[in-house]
Specification:
By secondary structure, the chain is mainly α. The protein has helices at about 1-20, 30-35, 35-55, 60-85, 90-110, 115-145, 150-160, 190-195, 200-210, 210-215, 225, 235-260, 270-285, 295-300. The longest helix is centred in the middle third of the chain and has 29 residues, at about 115-145.
Length: about 300
């Protein structure tokens, strides 16, 4: 009986740790209670995007392309909410970075003289990546002694050898193909510099320099906690810092996603609704600290 009571007591502790979302903050209120308005905003935006996709008939490849980009972005918004609600803002940063990459790629695509041709190039590079993944999977299966579909592998090799010359870079020293790293032959940093929004390079620095430790679970992401348990009030300080970082992650997620949506002409956003969401985010953050673009209804609506 004593062991049974002890087991139930330990189970209760484990459940409490899961509810808090962070074992260091066990017994404290979850971010869901403190930051609920932010999470409601994320949900409202994601649901609106999903409805826009479902109400847009998939007529033509350009429409399908924009629908898929918007759905991927909406799924990222939902993922950020799920992670941050449970106190896990650190892995949420990686999802926010995905949104940033989607955004700068779509901004560059929109800047092209022929967006349709750019969309086709983007899709072809996606096909190349899919075939390369299939080729690497077959190589892994061979190394593990697993059966490999020889006919499929031969077909993949044939397409890679004959259909994607425009994505080949300089030949490697061993004679193998060196594929370019992106559909437009530009890095994320370069795309941020090319953006019409002057904040993009600064946002890149934050996401890929300041927050890089969190995205990669580097030593810098862990060092603060090693020295945190030294005095009174450390739990409250940790909660404040986590909430601040959570709000930053949500803020960037909303900004990037809404700007992304505005870059997709075949699944149009309601400019007034976008402006309202941005004003709500600005109000939640307590003032004019957010970047001005696209912060007014006039800028959101465009010319």
């Amino acid at each position: 009986m004593a062991q049974s009571r002890k087991r139930k007591k330990n189970q209760g502790k484990r459940l409490g740790a899961r509810v808090s979302g962070n074992p260091q903050l066990r017994g404290t209120a979850s971010p869901k209670g403190r930051l609920g308005a932010y999470f409601e905003l994320l949900s409202e935006i994601a649901v609106a995007a999903e409805r826009a996709v479902l109400s847009t008939p998939p007529k033509g490849q350009l429409v399908i392309f924009d629908r898929q980009i918007l759905m991927r972005g909406a799924n990222s918004v939902k993922a950020v909410r799920l992670l941050v609600e449970q106190g896990h803002w650190e892995p949420a940063v990686g999802v926010t970075r995905q949104l940033f990459e989607l955004l700068v790629n779509m901004e560059y695509l929109s800047s092209l003289e022929d967006r349709a041709a750019g969309t086709l190039l983007h899709a072809r590079f996606g096909m190349l990546q899919m075939l390369l993944a299939q080729q690497r999977k077959a190589a892994y299966d061979r190394a593990k002694g697993r059966p490999v579909d020889a006919e499929l592998a031969a077909l993949v090799d044939h397409h890679l050898a004959n259909d994607f010359d425009d994505f080949q870079g300089k030949q490697k020293a061993d004679g193998s193909v060196n594929w370019v790293n992106s559909w437009c032959r530009k890095t994320t940093a370069a795309l941020a510099e090319l953006s019409a929004d002057p904040m993009r390079p600064h946002q890149y620095e934050l996401l890929y320099r300041v927050w890089s430790e969190q995205a990669h679970a580097a030593p810098g992401a862990l060092v603060a906690d090693l020295f945190r348990h030294g005095g009174d009030g450390w739990v409250e300080q940790t909660i404040r810092e986590n909430d601040r970082s959570s709000i930053e992650a949500v803020t960037f997620t909303v900004m990037f996603f809404l700007r992304l949506w505005l870059e997709l002409p075949y699944v149009p956003a309601d400019p007034m609704r976008v402006a309202a969401w941005l004003r709500e985010l600005n109000t939640l953050n307590g003032g004019p600290d957010l970047p001005a673009r696209p912060w007014t209804p006039e800028e959101v609506a465009g010319p």
